[in-house]
Design brief:
The structure holds two protein chains of two kinds. Chain A is an alpha/beta fold. Chain A folds into two domains: 196 residues, P-loop containing nucleotide triphosphate hydrolases (Rossmann fold, 3-Layer(aba) Sandwich); 114 residues, CobW-like, C-terminal domain (Hypothetical Protein Yjia, Chain: A,domain 2). Chain A has eleven helices and 14 strands. By secondary structure, chain B is mostly beta strands. In chain B, 0% of the residues lie in helices and 52% in strands. Chain B has no helices and 30 strands. In chain B, strands 14-15-16-17-18-19 form a six-stranded antiparallel beta sheet, with no helix packed on it. Classes of the chains: A alpha/beta, B mainly beta. At the A-B interface, helix 2 of A face strand 16 of B. Chain B: It holds the Pfam family WD40. Chain B: This is WD-40 repeat-containing protein. Chain B: InterPro entries: Apc4-like_WD40_dom (IPR024977), Quinoprotein_ADH-like_sf (IPR011047), WD40/YVTN_repeat-like_dom_sf (IPR015943), WD40_rpt (IPR001680), WD_repeat_multifunction (IPR051179).
Chain lengths: 324, 331
């Protein structure tokens, strides 16, 4: 009998504003001699010409879920395409979705948590955003899509670094950090990067949430924070009460969901020897006990939100009221 | 079918197991032959012997048909009609497109969709097409005539391909996927992206919300005579009563054959008020609606049941699973 229980197919989402170097990165991933085959979902045919891989055109159909939540949107075309691709799942090792420069990454990511079939057979590996080192700062001012793409990213390629000075690079990195404290940033030229820094990231895998680095959180954004989109982080060395925390976070994401793009947390609950980790996309939350706290690590609860126009004081008060 | 008054609890000894070699995505009887459609493009015709036909060079995305032909749409851009003699005829081909949905009409007519466009091809005469506001989620011919129900985001369009008039639009917020007419053509029902069904009473466009499912409904069938709509989506078969004028509104559905795993495929016996019910673990039950009596037809093997079909005279049931195993039970 064939093997029924197989591992989930990893999906990488490539985003980036127009002209940042997304298609160049895609072509690099496909043409490197890694021995893997990919199903590629693109918006425009023509620029990709790799015979071994399966290329499918997408329609960017954003569907609202009829569940009373305005921020819960999915990509209907992706549900259909992935359903179809799964019927020939022996033909490829992973799926890469290239979005248009103006696409909002949220419906793409939410598709993997909301649709049952897609969620059962595939796993969102990471959102990879390619950003133009020279023009990103301008785009962050005038293009809300560019801002969302940075806010959503797990991996950011700061591309075309040869076109700017080291000072400019540091400045743009600070801007990125102010919006998104946990993405891995790689400086690149012509989207040149080792494939293992882009694929196989497990960014949505709860087991791989290691630490939320305090340096990222405390630095930068005080001076550079983007008035509209930024990260908000809070911590407490006193254990939390799960009966206070869960109602708070659920209510918060229900009411502020549209303004919270991503969230992540490592929590220490009272009388609980294990770390509890969670992550969220808008109002969709995923959390679990991860592993026992090690003797040498401080039992510190940390929580980060990336969002727009959030009330920092209210968030902090709410979080600290969860202390047991 | 005559069920004995105190039926034996198991007929698994009557099951002829089949190793089909690929995930089954659709299943129909062509006369006495069971035609198993595999996701990777082959059709296995099972009678006394087994024959394999390659219908598509790629994945099969949808399956429809009647008792003479099985229609498949594939990611190779083809619509193929396969017959009991093993012939596979390409009815349409457009390279580079996916044929997402197919439907079989009377007298050899057929319909299919690629993206946002639905096509109609009569047995004789000119092909017609219709552009929809979003990708077509489901296609179904009315039981009589050539009216097509086309499910899409925001509702269903009812289209007379041979009429000049604009299609009638039945609206309901959300993404509609599968679509089905009641046998008496009084109702149209869709499966939604949410874990719910939506229906319209055509006489007055009245809405019917059918909710409460723990998961998305992927399989539904009207029972013989159209009294009930049986559906998957829960850990029991859900049967909505459709015999009254109002349909199921204000009534509770019947729940049959409860287990601790989900029902993922249902098929209605062509003559009697009996359904076959396939579960995520591969188990298949035959259930009599009047008293809920169950007969085990297939023991679980771990592979979800993806397709069930009764022979036209009700004398056999074919079973297909995700793991590529299947079976044929002859009564």
């Amino acid at each position: 009998m064939p093997d029924v229980a197989s591992t989930k197919i990893p999906v990488t989402v490539l985003t980036g504003y127009l002209g940042a170097g997304k298609t160049t990165l895609l072509n690099r991933i496909l043409s490197e001699p890694h021995g893997k085959k990919f199903a590629v979902v693109v918006n425009e045919f023509g620029e990709i010409g790799i015979d071994n891989d399966l290329v499918v055109g997408a329609d960017e159909e954003v569907f609202e879920m009829n569940n009373g939540c305005i921020c819960c949107t999915v990509r209907g075309d992706l549900i259909r395409i992935i359903d179809g691709l799964l019927r020939r799942k022996n033909d490829f090792d992973g799926i890469i979705i290239e979005t248009t420069g103006l696409a909002d990454p949220a419906p793409v990511a939410q598709t993997f948590f909301v649709d049952e079939t897609v969620g059962a057979k595939t796993t969102l590996d990471a959102v990879v955003t390619v950003a133009d080192a020279k023009w990103l700062k301008d785009r962050l001012k005038d293009a809300p899509e560019a801002k969302s793409q940075i806010a959503f990213a797990d991996v950011i390629l700061l591309n075309k670094t040869d076109l700017v000075t080291e000072t400019d690079l540091k400045d743009v990195e600070m801007r990125i950090r102010a919006i998104n404290p946990f993405a891995r940033i790689h400086r690149t030229q012509r989207s040149e990067i080792a494939i293992d820094k882009v694929l196989g990231q497990g960014a949505f895998d709860l087991d791989r949430i290691q630490a939320i680095d305090p340096d990222f959180l405390e630095g930068g954004h005080r001076h550079f924070h983007d008035e509209e989109m930024r990260s908000y982080s809070f911590s407490s060395d006193k254990p939390l009460d799960p009966d206070k925390f869960f109602p708070w976070i659920q209510n918060l994401t229900q009411t502020e969901g549209p303004n919270i793009l991503r969230s992540k947390g490592i929590l220490a609950f009272k009388d609980d020897p294990e770390r509890f980790v969670f992550q969220g996309v808008h109002m969709i939350l995923d959390g679990d006990h991860q592993r026992p706290w090690r003797a040498d690590e401080p039992k510190l609860s940390r929580i980060v939100f990336i969002g727009r126009q959030l009330d920092a004081a209210a968030l902090e008060k709410g979080f600290l009221s969860c202390v047991a | 079918m005559a069920l004995p008054s105190s039926p034996p609890s198991s007929l698994t000894s009557k099951l002829r197991p089949l190793d089909l070699g690929g995930a089954v995505v659709g299943l129909r009887f062509l006369g006495p032959l069971a035609a198993f459609v595999l996701g990777e493009g082959e059709i296995v015709l099972v009678g006394d012997d087994e024959a394999r036909v390659r219908a598509h060079h790629g994945a099969v995305l949808s399956v429809a048909g009647d008792d003479k032909r099985i229609l498949t749409g594939g990611d190779d851009g083809r619509v193929v009609a396969t017959r009991a003699d093993g012939s596979a005829q390409v009815l349409f081909e457009q390279k580079g497109r996916w044929i997402d949905q197919v439907a079989a009409g009377a007298d050899g007519a057929f319909s299919f969709s690629a993206g946002k466009t639905a096509h109609f091809q009569p047995a004789k005469g000119e092909a017609k097409s219709l552009d929809l506001p979003s990708t077509v989620g489901g296609l179904a011919f009315a039981p009589k005539g050539t009216r097509l129900a086309i499910a899409h985001y925001g509702g269903v369009s009812l289209w007379f391909p041979n009429a000049v008039a604009k299609p009638e639009r039945l609206e309901w917020k959300g993404s509609h996927r599968g679509v089905m007419w009641s046998p008496d053509m009084r109702f149209v029902v869709t499966t939604m992206q949410e874990a719910a069904l939506h229906g319209w009473r055509l006489a007055d466009a009245g809405h019917m919300r059918m909710t409460g499912y723990p998961s998305r409904v992927t399989s539904m069938a009207f029972t013989a005579g159209g009294k009930f709509l049986a559906t998957s989506g829960s850990s029991e078969a859900i049967l909505w009563p459709f015999s009254s004028k109002e349909g199921p509104m204000g009534k509770q559905p019947s729940m049959l054959a409860p287990r601790d795993v989900r029902v993922c495929a249902v098929a209605a016996h062509p003559r009697d008020e009996v359904i076959a019910c396939g579960y995520e673990d591969g188990l298949v039950l035959m259930v009599r609606i009047s008293d809920g009596a169950e007969i085990l037809l297939r023991a679980p093997d771990g592979g979800a049941v993806t397709a069930l079909a009764w022979r036209g005279d009700g004398s056999a049931l074919a079973i297909g699973t995700e793991s590529g195993m299947g079976g044929l039970t002859t009564f």
